[in-house]
Amino acid sequence: MIVILGELGMYMAACLTCVCVCAQIKMIVILGELGGRDEYGVVDALKAGDITKPVVAWVSGTCAALFKSEVQFGHAGARSGGDDESAQAKNKALRDAGATVPDSYEGLEAAVK
Predict the structure, then answer these.
(1) Is the pTM of this model over 0.85?
(2) Taking residues 69-92, what's their average pLDDT?
(3) Is 75 among the residues known to form the active site?
């Protein structure tokens, strides 16, 4: 079963804890973006044990650090509001909380398999 969650008006972690009760869902794959703090809610939920399925995650925007000035990304013009909102910081936090986070976007497919 594949469930795609997007802009639902709910925090990401709340959505993910809801899908954990479904036995048909074997894995959660997260595609996040730089800026904002939603991914840190997932980090907290992973650490608390509220997300009980394996998580594979990637936060896009790692190339933002290559630009000298602020660059907008994503459909809503996502941009990092500080170091902790960078894609690198979020990927590290998710990895440290127990999610499988590949070293690059290209590694996402292998991480899901």
Answers:
(1) no
(2) 70
(3) yes
